[in-house]
Specification:
Layout: H1 13-24, H2 28-41, E1 46-52, E2 58-63, H3 70-75, H4 103-109, E3 112-118, E4 125-131, E5 134-135, E6 139-141, E7 146-152, H5 159-163, H6 168-185, E8 190-195, E9 198-203, H7 209-217, H8 219-224, E10 226-227, E11 231-233, E12 236-242, E13 255-259, E14 262-263, H9 267-277, E15 288-294, E16 299-300, E17 311-312, H10 315-334, E18 414-419, E19 423-428, E20 431-436, H11 437-451, E21 459-469, H12 475-487, E22 491-494, E23 499-506, H13 514-526, H14 529-534, H15 538-553, H16 557-560, H17 563-571, E24 586-590, H18 591-600
Parallel strand pairs: 1-8, 13-15
Antiparallel strand pairs: 1-2, 2-7, 3-4, 3-7, 4-5, 4-6, 8-9, 10-12, 11-12, 12-15, 13-14, 16-17, 18-19, 19-20, 20-24, 21-23, 22-23
Length: 601
C-alpha cells in the first residue's frame, strides 16, 4: 500500500520504456543497428534498409529470415521479452547479436511502428502496429517469408531528444556507416541500402570478405590487403587483414575490430595491433580489419547498453594473440612469403554485382608521387611564402610593420641561435625572446586566410585532380564546408555519393599529398559540426583549422636558416603574440627577470 505523501512512484510502462530508449536509441542509426541485428539473429540471407530524411521520417528494415508466429508477434513489444535467453547461465554463453529484449519496445515507445511478419511454414502473415507504445490488434496480412519493420517519426513524442539530432545528411551518414559495419561482419548476407528512394549500395553476398572490402573501400585498397596469419589457441582465434605500413593514415577511419562478428571499440586491442606493427610514428594510424573469435565464457558483452564495449576475462591472453598474429603477418610479408590475397574470379552469387578486384598476379600500385601544379605558387600575393626567400638574412635586426630596424620606437632583434630545430632565440634591448616557429607560422597563415574573407583567395589548379573518399558520416559536414573551401581558395565538388574531387588549392599552399591533407582537415572538423554551425564566423573557425593542419605538415627546416624573416612576418600580423587557438608564439624573458633568477640562486 502506497502512502498518500510518498514521493516515490512507480513509472508507467510507457515512461519506463522511454527511459530505456534513452540507453538504446540515440539516433536513427541506433534503430537500424537493433533491427538489423534482429534480422541477422533470424538467419536472414538478405537485409534491405530504406530511410527517408536521414531516418528521422522513416526507417524500414526488411529481411528474409525466420519470421514470427502470431504468438511471438504478440510478445515481441513487451519489455524484456526475448527468445535468446532462458537462464542466468545463458548470459555467459551469448552467441547472438541481440539478447536483452529491450530494443523493440524501446523503439516503439518513441516512434510509430508497424511489424509485418511470416514464417515460411505459415500460409499467412500477421501485422501489428504501435503508436508510441500503444498497440493495435494483430491482424492477418499477405507478405513474403521474413519480417518487415517500419519506424516512422522517430522521437515525435519526445521533442527534446529530437532537437539533439544532427542534419539529415549527417544522420543518414551514421545509418550508412552502421550498415557497413554489419556488412563487413557478415559478407555472406546481401545488404541493400536505399536513401530517399536512391540506392546507395547493394552488396552481393560472398564467401570472400575481400570482395566486400573492395565494394566499400575501393579496388586499390583491397589489392593491398595482407591476410593475417590465422592463429588459434586458448579459446581465441585471430584473423582478418592488415594494410601495409606505407598506407598508414592520420585518422582511425580504416580501423575495424570485430569480436564474434560484433563491431566493438576497444583501446586495449587497438594498442595490441600497434604493438604488433612494432610501433608507429606519432600521428599515423595503421589500417586493419581485425576479426576475433573468442569463447563466449571469456568475454562479457553485457557491460554497455549498445554493446559497443566489452570486458575480457583473460585480457593478457587476447592481447598477446593479437600482437603475435599481426607481428607474424608483417614478418611473413617482409620476407616475401605472403601470396597474393585477392582472388582472380570474384564470387557471383545473386543479389548484386561484386566490385572489380585485381587478379593475383597484378602487383599493388606504388605510392602515388606528389601531385604537380599547373602554375608555380605566387605566394607573395598573400604574403605567405611556402619557403623563406633566399635573400632573407639569416640573422640581424628585424623590424616590425616595415619600419627600419634603427627606429627608436621599435626594438631590434638579433638572432642568437636555434633550439632543438623548433625554436629561435633572439636578443633585444629588453632581454631575450624565444620564438616558436610552428606557432608563428600558424598565426601568419591564419591571418592571411582571414584577410581574404571578403574576396576568395586566388587558386592554383592541379594537373591531376585529387580524389578523397569520404566517410559516410562526413558527407553532410563536407556539404556544409563547401562554401568555406571555395572562399579559402579550394575548388571542391562531389564526384558521386562519397567521393570529393579537389581541382585547385589556395595559391600559397604547397602540398605533396593533397588527398591526405583534405582528409585530415575534414577529420579535424568531424567532431565539431555543431560548433561550426553555431560559430558567429564559420569561415574564421575554418581558417583556424586550415592553418593548424597545414603548419602541422610543413617542414620547418628551411625556416631554421631564415628565422629573421619569420619573425619579421610575424610582427606584421595584427595579433602577433599568440596563435589563433591562444597558444603563445613568443615568450619574452626580460633582463630583470634573468638577473632576478640568478640572484635567487
Amino acid at each position: 500500500m502506497i502512502e498518500e505523501d510518498s514521493t516515490i512512484r512507480r513509472m508507467s510502462e510507457t515512461l519506463a520504456s522511454q527511459v530505456a530508449a534513452g540507453e538504446v536509441v540515440e539516433r536513427p542509426a541506433s534503430v537500424v543497428k537493433e533491427l538489423v541485428e534482429n534480422s541477422i539473429d533470424a538467419q536472414a540471407r538478405a537485409i534491405r534498409v530504406e530511410i527517408t530524411r536521414g531516418g528521422i521520417a522513416s526507417i524500414k528494415v526488411q529481411d528474409d529470415g525466420a519470421g514470427m508466429s502470431r504468438a511471438d508477434l504478440a510478445l515481441c513489444l513487451e519489455r524484456h521479452a526475448t527468445s535468446k535467453l532462458t537462464t542466468y547461465e545463458d548470459l555467459f554463453n551469448i552467441r547472438q547479436m541481440g539478447f536483452r529484449g529491450e530494443a523493440l519496445p524501446s523503439i516503439a515507445s518513441v516512434a510509430q511502428m508497424s511489424i509485418t511478419t511470416r514464417r515460411r511454414q505459415d500460409i499467412e502473415g500477421f501485422r501489428l502496429e504501435s503508436n508510441g507504445g500503444e498497440l493495435t490488434e494483430i491482424r492477418s496480412a499477405g507478405c513474403p517469408p521474413g519480417t518487415e519493420i517500419e519506424v516512422r517519426e522517430l522521437f515525435y513524442n519526445t521533442p527534446v531528444r529530437r532537437k539533439f539530432l544532427k542534419s539529415e545528411d549527417t544522420e543518414a551518414g551514421h545509418v550508412e556507416q552502421q550498415l557497413r559495419l554489419h556488412a563487413l561482419a557478415f559478407p555472406d548476407i546481401r545488404f541493400t541500402f536505399i536513401r530517399d528512394g536512391g540506392t546507395i549500395f547493394d552488396t552481393a553476398a560472398t564467401t570472400d570478405l575481400r570482395h566486400r572490402i573492395a565494394e566499400f573501400f575501393g579496388r586499390d585498397n583491397a589489392q593491398k590487403l595482407l591476410r593475417i596469419r590465422p592463429t588459434t589457441g586458448m579459446g581465441i582465434r585471430v584473423e582478418g587483414y592488415l594494410m601495409p605500413l606505407t598506407d598508414a593514415r592520420r585518422n582511425r577511419r580504416l580501423q575495424y575490430i570485430y569480436l564474434n562478428s560484433r563491431p566493438i571499440e576497444d583501446k586495449m586491442l587497438t594498442r595490441a595491433v600497434r604493438d604488433g606493427y612494432g610501433g608507429f610514428p606519432t600521428g599515423l594510424q595503421p589500417g586493419y580489419f581485425l576479426y576475433l573469435e573468442v569463447e563466449p565464457a571469456l568475454v562479457d558483452v553485457n557491460v554497455h547498453p549498445a554493446k559497443r564495449e566489452v570486458r575480457f576475462r583473460r585480457p593478457a591472453d587476447i592481447t598477446s594473440a593479437v600482437m603475435d598474429a599481426v607481428s607474424a603477418t608483417l614478418t611473413d610479408h617482409a620476407r616475401g612469403e605472403t601470396t597474393s590475397l585477392v582472388p582472380a574470379k570474384p564470387d557471383t552469387p545473386s543479389g548484386g554485382t561484386p566490385a572489380s578486384v585485381p587478379p593475383p598476379d597484378e602487383e599493388a600500385s606504388p605510392i602515388r608521387p606528389a601531385l604537380r601544379l599547373v602554375v608555380e605558387p605566387q605566394q607573395q600575393e598573400l604574403g605567405i611564402p611556402a619557403q623563406p626567400s633566399p635573400s632573407s638574412p639569416a640573422q640581424g635586426p628585424v623590424a616590425p610593420a616595415g619600419r627600419p630596424a634603427e627606429d627608436s620606437d621599435t626594438p631590434a632583434f638579433r638572432h642568437l641561435g636555434n633550439i632543438h630545430g623548433q625554436y629561435a632565440l633572439f636578443e633585444n634591448a629588453e632581454g631575450l625572446v624565444l620564438l616558436s616557429m610552428r606557432a608563428a607560422r600558424e598565426r601568419i597563415v591564419f591571418e592571411r586566410i582571414v584577410s581574404a574573407n571578403k574576396s576568395s583567395i586566388p587558386s592554383q589548379q592541379l594537373l591531376t585532380p585529387a580524389m578523397v573518399e569520404l566517410d559516410t558520416r562526413d558527407v553532410g559536414l563536407v556539404k556544409d564546408l563547401q562554401p568555406l573551401f571555395l572562399q579559402a581558395g579550394f575548388r571542391v565538388q562531389f564526384f558521386g555519393e562519397r567521393t570529393l574531387r579537389v581541382d585547385s588549392l589556395p595559391i600559397f599552399l604547397s602540398l605533396d599529398k593533397v588527398d591526405d591533407f583534405i582528409a585530415e582537415l575534414i577529420e579535424a572538423f568531424s567532431n565539431g559540426e555543431t560548433k561550426l554551425k553555431r560559430s558567429r564566423d564559420p569561415y574564421e573557425l575554418f581558417a583556424i583549422r586550415l592553418a593548424q593542419r597545414y603548419v602541422m605538415r610543413e617542414d620547418m627546416t628551411a625556416w631554421l636558416h631564415h628565422p629573421g624573416q619569420l619573425l619579421h612576418e610575424l610582427l606584421h600580423c595584427e595579433i602577433p603574440y599568440c596563435t589563433p587557438r591562444g597558444k603563445p608564439t613568443m615568450i619574452p624573458l626580460s633582463i630583470n627577470e634573468i638577473q632576478r633568477r640568478f640572484q635567487a640562486l
